[in-house]
Amino acid sequence: MSRAVLSLGSNLGDRAEHLRQAVRLLGQAVELRSGIYETPPWGDVDQPAYLNAVVLVSDPAAAPRDWLERARAVESAAGRVRDPARRFGPRTLDVDVIAVWDRDGRPVLSDDPALTLPHPRAQLRTFVLRPWLDIQPAAELPGRGPVAALLAHPALAADLAGLTPRPDLALESTS
Fold it and tell me: Is there a domain that residue 108 lies in?
């Protein structure tokens, strides 16, 4: 069995529904779901605000690359179009594989450009770290340390102040 933390983000169309659709498409693999946070855009400020969340998924047969393939399939189902000119540009849905653990609970490390694990910028992204704490208060980003300690770093304080919890939204479908 492998487990993974996936980050979900959307800033085009029905943002909350794109996140819910991702959870539905991931199906039984979803063990835990964070709250939803509204966040300013990261890396490319000329775009609408995002809704972000994190899920913990597991599957007895999944290899690390399987999580990447699932992430891309979920993005595709939401109509995600990648614009090479705007790497951090707007999107209907973004699903990033943040970290993966093998069946023995050991973190999977990879420097493969197609799937770098843990995610190479996760420690810089409050929109990943803060929702992750919702579902795993003692979470550790492999090779970087406790998520709570990463969020306490002064460089992330301004970003953390920009996150707005959205208790009016949930990853469960309301229909």
Answer: yes
